[in-house]
Amino acid sequence: MKPIDFDALTVFLQTLVRIPTLSGEEEPIMEPIAEEMRRLGFDHIFTDANGSLIGIVEGAQPGPTLLMDAHVDTVGIAPGAPWRHDPFAAVIEDGRMFGRGTSDMKGALAAMVHAAGSLDRSRLAGRVAVSASVLEEVMEGVALATVMEEVRPDFVVIGESTELNLNHGGRGRAEIHLEAVGQPAHSSTPELGVNAVHVMIRAIQELEALPLPQDPLLGPAILALTDIISEPYPGHSVIPSRCRVTYDRRLLAGETMAGVLGAIQDLPAFQERVTATIAQGEHRAYTGAVLRGPKFFPAWKLPADHPFVQAALTGLRGAGLDPKLGAYRFCTNAAYSAGVAQVPTVGFGPSPEGRAHIVDEYIELEELHRAAQGYAGLIQGVLGN
Fold first, then answer.
1. What is the CATH number of the domain that holds 69?
2. Does 145 lie in the same domain as 28?
3. Are residues 250 and 359 in the same domain?
4. What pLDDT is recorded for position 80?
5. Which end of the chain, C or N, has fewer beta carbons within 10 A?
6. Which pLDDT belongs to residue 79?
7. Which stretch of DSSP H or E encloses residue 56?
8. Count of H helices and E strands in the chain?
9. How far is CA 213 from CA 83, 176, 262, 267, in A?
10. DSSP alpha helix (H) spans, the chain
11. End-to-end alpha-carbon separation of the chain, Å?
12. Same domain, residue pair 33 and 94
């Protein structure tokens, strides 16, 4: 393995952070990533139908395929919350690089690219694919499905933040829509109508009293109300005839769409005027491809003693790290790789989960560099001969 050039890695990450990449607007970042892959000697570099960029490093001997994934889309800059540093300047101060996407998750991508580029191929049996995937922030795992159709991996590493620990599970996510239908009336005679908001309030009270499961690795399932809208709005002297609510439901391993919805639909308030459905997502990639599907992204768990988990641990320890085992509390692209496709998956990346989406997002440069060493060690642990 060649020494990783930490200075070049840092400059590469600065290049990536300086390119704004909202979901569906990732195209400008792909050529700089491809250029760095070419400079580092990747064997194959191409994009899939959604515009995700894939680079492949071939080992000297045949063997399994290890896919390492990092999404390049980011959330936007929230209005009214000033940043101390320009979010797209990639300023370095006191050993930290500031900017949108530094931790979530261009830092992991940069580290993966440099780790794969440092490999001693004569010691590898198999191949390593690095994907810079799109649209993760809006539909976790949906774009990764197309990457996996191209690569056909035997194992997957998700680069979302773990503080350099190793995750072997993660919560999923569902977006649930409730709709209550009432009967409009003049607000001077409310008794002649049925107020949809009042109907919805009863449904919310029943739903929030519904017991939720727990998992020793993933923690508790979560149900969080994220918006409530009545119609007509503004309501000028009229009783609202419709009320819609959105819930964010954090899922545990084994939960299904039918099970999650069924528990809600069986509640008394949902027998007459209130319905519950899984939201449908539709997002356009920069290539023009349209990704559609239900916003139900499964949770996942891999046993701690699974050979892939143990090989990854061995590789990380060989790189000088001391990772603990854990699980993601948020949803990642592993919802597809592990939750749907059932391909053995782990998570490893720099920074803590809580640094995602914040004002003055940053990454510790030391942690960035150690992540690159960790990725290289992980690859060697899984594919080394």
1. 3.40.630.10
2. yes
3. no
4. 83
5. C
6. 86
7. strand 53-58
8. 9, 21
9. 38, 17, 15, 17
10. 6-17, 27-39, 107-117, 142-151, 196-208, 257-265, 307-318, 334-337, 365-383
11. 13
12. yes
Same domain, 165 and 50: yes
Q: Is the preceding omega at residue 184 within 30 degrees of 0, hence cis?
A: no
Q: Which two tokens stand for residue 204?
A: 């919310």
Alpha-carbon distance of 50 to 135, in angstroms, equals 9
Q: Are residues 150 and 208 in the same domain?
A: no
**Residues 182 and 191: beta-carbon distance below 8 Å:** no
Q: What phi and psi values does residue 273 have, to the nearest 5 degrees? A: -110, 0
pLDDT tens column, 4-49: 999 999 999 999 999 999 999 999 999 999 999 999 999 999 999 9
Q: Which amino acid is at 72?
A: V
Quick one: 193 exposed, middle or buried, by C-beta within 10 A (0-12, 13-18, 19+)? Answer: middle
Cβ contact 245:227 at 8 Å: yes
Do the beta carbons of residue 88 and residue 20 sit within 8 Å? yes
> CATH number for the domain including 263?
3.30.70.360
Q: Report the pLDDT value the prediction gives residue 198, as an integer from 0 to 100.
A: 96
Instruction: Look up the pTM and report it.
Output: 0.95
Most distant CA pair in the chain, distance: 82
Q: Which domain holds residue 208?
A: 172-284
**Is there a single domain that holds both residue 220 and residue 82?**
no
CA angle at 38 for the pair 362 and 60, rounded to the nearest 5°: 110
**Which one-letter amino acid corresponds to residue 5?**
D
Question: Model confidence over 344-360: pLDDT tens digits?
Answer: 999 999 999 999 999 99
Report how far residue 327's alpha carbon sits from residue 263's, in angstroms, rounded to the nearest whole number. Answer: 26
Same domain, 32 and 163: yes
Q: Across-strand partners of 235?
A: none
**Minimal CA–CA distance to 48: which of 172, 118, 152?**
152
- Taking residue 120's Cβ as centre, other Cβ atoms within 10 Å add up to 13
Please tell me the total count of domains within the chain: 2
Q: What residue has token string 């017991």?
A: 211
Instruction: Write down the pLDDT at residue 320.
Output: 97
Compute the distance between CA of residue 355 and CA of residue 86 in angstroms, rounded to an integer. Answer: 17
294 burial level (CB within 10 Å; 0-12, 13-18, 19+) = middle
Residue 57, both tokens:
């490093």
